[in-house]
Amino acid sequence: MNTLIILSAVGVLALFSEMLNFKKALGAIILLGLVGAFAADVMAWNTNRHYYNEMMVVDNFSVAFTGLLIVITFLWFIMSPDFFREPSSRIDHFALIIFALIGGQLMTSYNNMLMLFLGIEILSIPMFILAGSNKSDLKSNEAALKYFLMAAFATGFLLFGMALIYGATGSFQIQNITQFIKSQQGNIPVMLVAGILMMLVGLAFKVSAAPFHFWTPDVYTGSPTVITAFMSTVVKTAAFAGFFRLFSMCFESSSATWANTIWALSALTIIIGNVTAVYQTSFKRMLAYSSISHAGYMLMAILALNQYAQGSILFYATAYSISSITAFAVLLLVSHLAGNDSIESFNGLAKKNPLLAFATVLAMLSLAGIPPLAGFFAKYYIFTAALQQHYTGLVIIAVMGSLIGVYYYFRIIIALFKSENDDVVIPVNNTFKVFLVVTSVAALLLGIMPQLVAGIL
Amino acid sequence: MNPSSIPSDYLPIFIQFLVAAGFVVAVMVATHWLGPKRKSKLKLETFECGIEPQGNARIPFSIKYFLVAILFVLFDVEVIFMYPWAVNFKVLGESGLIEMLIFMALLLTGFFYIIKKGALKWE
């Protein structure tokens, strides 16, 4: 709860920094505020307290995911300030990011459907604005409009689902709905099933699972790269935390009604995401499709729902976010110099910028799921959790998908080692070097000692 | 709420709906039927407080109107929260007062922000 208050205070401070003339100190204030919020979050470990008439509950699940969201946002702030050079309104962008983080926190700790909805909206509305924050770029405008219209459509489904669930159970409260489902002893009313499936559609849109993924490539490509980095890490993690919380704590005992749907969603997402990523020539667009395919793997944890599922989805989100933010950071530098985000602009990076190339290689290997790195154990845990629930067919599809993944991630690594005639070294400042080293070490460390994160839950 | 309510429980609402809709339709039909009809140029003209209308209503107007209108709606809706609070003032007591003060402080922060951003500047 203190986390929420600290974050809100930082957000409001960020709004006013430009008017009250402490713009220069803002970066430090935000980073300190994030550290404070993280400390407050860790202090809430094992307290399991309920707030605001049972509207919110801070349990270990929410503490772990909130902590992860804050850490990624911290990394994001370290990576981004140099690239917010447009004089127009960068201060407001920082405030919006903090507000989006608050929405993410609500999505991890809601105890009432209304709070889930509020969280999704608080997270999404800043993202619409940020997606269009590059006002002079037509693609950015397109991304904002597309994101807004599609998200509004999906929110409609989500709300309709909630209304149907309220109609069937008479409550928005998670515990009451669970009790109602249990009391029905398998005879679940059709209205409730319809409600669950509609909420599933809305949430599948938010995590960009196929066939509700059509907005993702365009929005990810059109938005400024820093914003895409935020979307594919923090927003995705928060959406999955909300998704997982809803289905594990609320709808678990009715799993017979939605398990097949999630099975199909997961398989379809893995196949479509991976196969389409192969054909991309733009690195950014490829990462967008790769984020779709990773959503497919994470859906497997929601399907499994055993004692391993919580830890595995947390670890997957961590591993994916760290590798993904590294990849976007490198893309930022490379595309800044090359003027586009095609895979060719990575050619010969190994010779020119060994550190950048090293970080990229680790990130790609981790995303592909190659053994000593975090991404391997992330997949390992998720597949194990799914196998224990006897979803062998889905695991086979997922393994095939990751094999396709290896192909397109290695295309980047091969490009890095191609010889290139021009040797323009990309200037990398020290903060950025530290950032790349930290994320690369984290990806390695989590691969060597996965229990550090996976054992928490 | 009793979750096992059956469709017939909603019958009063349905009747209420029918009565409401029926009243509107009946009154509209009755006025058209009863009232005298004299159509002249003056009678068919737009009536705006007795002042003669000028030009077309469908003209492009400044986006500033839109911004001010949106901000008005925002603050209007927020102020509406004060009505239930005022009604329950005694029940909510001291903690209610403090909560409302926090709410008003946040509202004023937003107001300060839009003034400083120049959203209300007309020129």
Major beta sheet, strand line-up of chain A: 1-2
The poorly predicted ranges of chain A are: none
Reported for the largest beta sheet of chain B, the result is: none
Quick one: how many beta strands of chain B? Answer: 0
Number of helices of chain A: 19
Q: How far is it from the N-terminal to the C-terminal residue of chain B, by CA?
A: 54 Å
Helix/strand class of chain B = mainly alpha
Description:
The complex is a heterodimer of chains A (457) and B (123). With 457 residues, chain A is an all-alpha fold. Chain A has helices at residues 2-16, 26-43, 60-79, 90-109, 113-131, 138-169, 174-183, 190-206, 215-222, 225-250, 255-278, 283-304, 309-338, 349-352, 354-368, 374-388, 392-416, 430-448, 451-454, and strands at residues 49-51, 56-58. Chain A has one domain (2-454). Chain A has a two-stranded antiparallel sheet. Chain A is globular and about 70 Å long. Chain A starts with a helix and ends with a helix. The mean pLDDT of chain A is 90. The model of chain B has no long low-confidence stretch (mean pLDDT 85). The chains are: A mainly alpha (457), B mainly alpha (123). At the A-B interface, helix 1 of A face helix 5 of B.
What is the strand and helix layout of this fold?
The complex is a heterodimer of chains A (457) and B (123).
Chain A (H helix, E strand, L loop, with lengths): L1 H15 L9 H18 L5 E3 L4 E3 L1 H20 L10 H20 L3 H19 L6 H32 L4 H10 L6 H17 L8 H8 L2 H26 L4 H24 L4 H22 L4 H30 L10 H4 L1 H15 L5 H15 L3 H25 L13 H19 L2 H4 L3
Chain B lengths: L10 H24 L6 H4 L18 H18 L1 H6 L1 H29 L6
